[in-house]
Specification:
Length: about 250
Amino acid sequence: MFVLCLDESGTQGEATYFVLGGLAVFEREIHLLSQDFDALQTEYFPRETGRVFFHAARLRVREGQTVEQPWDEHSNQQRIELKDRVYEITRNRQGVLFGCAIEKRFAEIRDEGPYDMAFEDLISRFDLFLSRANRNALRQGGEEQRGLVVLAESNYQKAIGALGQRLRTSGTRWRSLHNVADVPLFAPARETRLLQDADFYANAICGRYHGKHTGDFDRIALKFDREESVVHGLAHLTADSQCPCIACFSRLGR
């Protein structure tokens, strides 16, 4: 079983982009990723007995702004260092990234909700990834795997749950789904390390497209699902037909 955990970013009114993104891992990797986060907590918060909620926004507070506990124990530089350590976890572990960045103006032109568009896009990409993985596994004498999608609890939960049911029954606008085992499940990000991990990737993607900050995005860019030179795991839905980002550029001529 592959588990794809997704979180959103860019829900604030001033954001020009909405992003849904996260990490797909084979089930046994979930425990290892949780151990990585627990080790970071032990290193940076040795006095904390409860589980610290890792959240990208809490590590991006600028110098002079109010910092929530327990993050106020560290300097701005230490928080930046910790953020970078989180991205290093994915670079060093097995897993494949997926993300969809939707220009809100593009969604308005299409008269569609950006969360609905992003979820349909990513569940289709995840299903295609599983199809390729299963073909390779069968050629090597392995077993087929199914996929499960887990989302952070949010105000979108009811609508996306209904959309997930419809997509599993009727398929996406592009194809039927063959490998997704169930409608999306929802879990509290505060209690789920993999969803906390997903928050950092959604934040990095949003930073790249909304804020034009490439540093965090560049750290994870090679982890997006790809086949040869084509980046399948990242979608950029925009009104700009000349966009040179890796998602758009890799599909030129296709």
